[in-house]
Amino acid sequence: MKHLKIIQKIPVVKHLVNKAISRLASNDANAISKHFSQFLRVELAASEDLRAEVFNVRHQVYCEELHFEDERKNQLEQDEFDSHSFHSLIRHVTTGKVAGTVRIITSGHGDEKLPIEANCMHAITDPTIFPAAFPRNEICEISRLAVPETFRRRKFDQFKGAATGVINEVFFSEHELRCFPYIAICLYLSAALMALHNNKRHVFVMMEPRLARSLTFVGIVFKQLGDPIEYHGKRAAYYINPEMFRKNLSVGYVKLLESIERELYPNDKPRPLKRKFPGFGWGLRFS
Asked: What is residue 282's DSSP assignment?
């Protein structure tokens, strides 16, 4: 993989190298998905008790570790967006501890603004893609992804960015794709499923450009909507919709997605992804 990363810098072959890396990521995810349910379980935080666990993990990460928000006496990090959000969490089966959480914020009317509208509209310079361009009931924003320090024990995860899902590019030389932070990736897949199952067709997120680049290797391809701005570090506005997600998700990650979907929505009809071109890690579509 080290050699792939070197020749990846050559423009003529960059596209092919990216495909090779993506295929390796897909193969690794295929193996991981077979054992996923043995160690981790994905849950919708649909009760007050589960949401309290979510808010406590967010407090650990966003207040105590990163100091993005002030610490609260009740150790629950909440804001005005939680009342119109869907939350999911990943639980470590052996210990019962929450290994990560994420939410999607929805908007039923103009007064329920997404965080990107309230705080970062200047980050969006694309003239056609912005929240107000779509029906309010079809937009959402991925937010508050948090992975507590307890579940970031590997040396590649020992930097603060990993707390909010960033992939450390220094160690992403793949020695190897096992360096991928699978909890964070599973949280992004959970967010995608929450959006799909709640008919949210236009998904926004503020994130670091290096995270967006790294996610392309697993086939989660966002469209950047403007230059990075200073917002808890250098972050840019990104967009994805179901068609983009269906088209690009790497083959191995389809199985991981299906495993997560069965746990999040056991009573709903599954939404299987099939490859349009068997044997290749691209050209995915819903069946």
From this structure: -
